[in-house]
Amino acid sequence: MGGTSKTQNDVISLIQDEAHPLISSVSDWDPILTQIGDRSIVLMGEATHGTHEFYKARAELTQRLIEEKGFSALAIEADWPDALALNSFILRDHDESHIMETFSAFQRFPMWMWRNSEFLRLVEWLNLHNSKEKTAHQVSLFGIDLYSLYRSMGEVIRYLERIDYASARHARELYSCFDHAGGDPVRYGRLVRIEAQESCESAAIEAAKLLFSSKITKGDLRVHAGTLHEDELFYAQRHAELVRNAESYYRNLFSPVVNTWNVRDRHMASTVDHILKHLESRGRNPKIIVWAHNSHVGDDRATEMGKRGQWNIGQLLREMHPEKTFNLGFTTFEGTVMAAREWDEPPELRNVNPALPESFEGLFHRTGLNDFYLDLTRDSVREPLNESRLERAIGVIYAPETERFSHYFHARLAEQFDGVIHFDRTSAVDPLDRVPVPELADPSPVQF
């Protein structure tokens, strides 16, 4: 890691001087809102996909950005059709008795990532906010991920059936190319890449073109489809583009040369950009908040993955909107987390090991400040925190037995984020669904 003991003590003293303590007060987030200023794209990360404090802090910040700075959209690391169900609820339904039915849209692993009490409370708040606002000041909710390959194909066909039967029939014929995979997108990728069956790339591209043809975009939607409007055309176009990008993602899952992470994050960044353009075209404030993992919203150019040719949302949006993007990271030292042991397995309440001493999380723990915010753009902070250190990332799977290999990477924090929120000890989210809760053992103490 470099440096001497005195140097490390100096860095700790510097953080103690520059950090803004978080004391569960309404003023906790004032420095962040001041730092954000007039920027219109705020990316909020998380160091895990199952930590209560991260969701709570992001919700509180989101509410203030909406109320005080006029943000008009929240985009989350979730599937496009799932989030659209919530979007319909908070924009048009407003009947609180329907909210749990709406949340049933989230059926894909990891369900607890969005089917949790913390996110539910934010959706309730958005619903109440929108019920009091005129259309131009309402807030929309979107999902930006691309895993809904087959569901999105169905939505494209359903939309076209209401607009133009011939186009719908053509789309159905094109998408029939995927039928041999039996509705399993991973199996589709295996069939194409490993068993050398013909891909559906051209079919996905051709079907997407239908949604952008003049026949669809210039037609009188009210004549053809009653109450359909520009929003629904936009939703359908995004479904079609999702199919196109998801086909590429799954087709290359088993490729030794294509980085599917890049396919996915380019899709997510492009979706955010298209949402901004759509909001502006509809006379709404083109300002958006994005919730995703630190590994997506932190600038990948400041990480070891970036050195290997990986990019992410944070990097791409900074490149696309350099003066408008704010990247906020989150870290934790220890606590509990909701996570699975393996993919597609039920989540469990898991102990989070104390962070490695040589990591940023270990450094922050040494300050003794517990919870704080640190502005990483300040010159006094930027230089010492641009030293490459380990940073922890826990996704939907937590493997404490291989902690160093599975969950740490090197990064330069002050280039990765504009600011970071550290909670020294955190707790797991509260899932809406019953999950196994094994007896928790005390984590082993860490010697510094």
Keywords:
alpha/beta, EreA/ChaN-like  fold, two-stranded antiparallel sheet, 15% strand, disordered N terminus, disordered C terminus
Description:
The protein contains 21 helices and 11 strands. With 448 residues, it is of the alpha/beta class. The protein folds into 2 domains: 5-72 and 287-426, EreA-like (biosynthetic domain) (EreA/ChaN-like  fold, 3-Layer(aba) Sandwich), CATH 3.40.1660; 147-260. Strands 1, 2, 3, 4, 5, 6, 7, 8 and 11 form a 9-stranded mixed β-sheet that branches. The chain has a two-stranded antiparallel ribbon with strand order 9-10. Helix 7 (149-163) runs antiparallel to helix 13 (230-251). The longest helix has 22 residues, at 230-251. It starts with a helix and ends in a 22-residue tail after the last strand. Residues 1-6, 221-228 and 441-448 have low confidence and may be disordered.
